[in-house]
Design a protein that fits this description.
about 290 residues, alpha/beta, 9 helices
């Protein structure tokens, strides 16, 4: 039996880059990595042609428009990548019998909860980015009801641009910085997320996922605010930078952020029997790589 092929879109992003590293641990699978210059997933004909050329059993969509503030003015671009492109992938996966796994976001919620969000909680995005990601979820399920959607939050990695790398840079450049203290959430190490998706792919063959069970939350364990996250980075790197705590009202942004982005990860943990690392343990791992 020939090796099953996994297509990773958005291969140069945080999660896609982590998949490149992880692929070495799974020689029983054949991985195809495509970035936007190799395959424009917003082009339905190009997507179909690519799938016609390659025998693909799994497609993991790590591609996304993630510029939350820019999305407020680049609405068309955000929806093109986060919704239309997802529809293209879902449609071709359904036609070819490939299993589709799509990464979504905590921004589909409005952040008014006081308890961790369940997959079944009502969605109500605050801005264009969240709305475009929600539309992508809906189009995925309309065009391929078997799509597995993983909502995640506060993603960081040793690759790409993210909060952790920004903090490291600012702590080197400045004597003091200010970080908001009134937005709560769960950091997600992209390497952990990639690993969980691989566990899902392996378990997929066991058909343990039923048809009503296709949205999952994933983040690392533990709840913090952005200021606490910055303090942890400061302490773990022995930085002398002063990290001030400010309310988000003092740091206005074009897009409104959810105040509370905590995702309940019970379902993914129980369905796939996965261990979810604590956020600080994963942060230590990532900082070790960045050294």
């Amino acid at each position: 039996m020939s090796a099953q092929t996994i297509l990773i879109t958005g291969a140069n992003g945080q999660v896609g880059s982590e998949f490149r590293v992880l692929a070495k641990a799974y020689p029983q699978y054949n991985f195809l990595f495509v970035a936007k210059d190799e395959l424009s997933i917003d082009n339905a004909a190009a997507v179909k042609e690519y799938f016609d050329k390659h025998s693909i059993q799994y497609c993991v969509n790590c591609a996304a428009y993630t510029a939350v503030d820019k999305a407020e003015t680049e609405t068309e671009k955000a929806f093109l990548i986060n919704a239309d492109a997802v529809e293209n992938l879902a449609t071709v996966c359904k036609a070819k019998g490939a299993k589709f796994i799509h990464i979504s976001t905590d921004y589909v919620f409005d952040g008014t909860n006081t308890t961790p969000y369940l997959e079944s909680d009502p969605v109500k995005p605050l801005g264009v980015y969240g709305a475009s990601k929600l539309k992508g979820e809906q189009l995925a399920h309309q065009n391929d009801p078997d799509t597995i959607i993983i909502r995640t939050s506060w993603v960081y990695s040793s690759f790409g641009n993210n909060f952790v790398k920004t903090m490291l840079r600012l702590m080197k450049e400045r004597e003091s910085i200010s970080v908001v203290n009134d937005q709560q959430g769960c950091p997600t190490y992209a390497a952990d997320l990639a690993n969980v998706i691989m566990q899902i792919i392996i378990n997929y063959q066991l058909s343990i996922i039923n048809s009503t069970n296709r949205i999952f939350n994933y983040s690392n364990a533990g709840v913090i605010n952005w200021h606490q996250f910055a303090i942890a980075i400061k302490e773990l790197t022995n930085s002398k930078c002063i990290v001030n705590s400010i309310p988000s009202s003092q740091y206005p942004t074009p897009a409104k952020r959810p105040q509370y982005s905590v995702l309940d990860t019970t379902k993914i943990h129980e369905t796939f029997a996965i261990t979810i690392p604590a956020w600080k343990d994963s942060l230590v791992t990532c900082l070790g790589l960045l050294k």
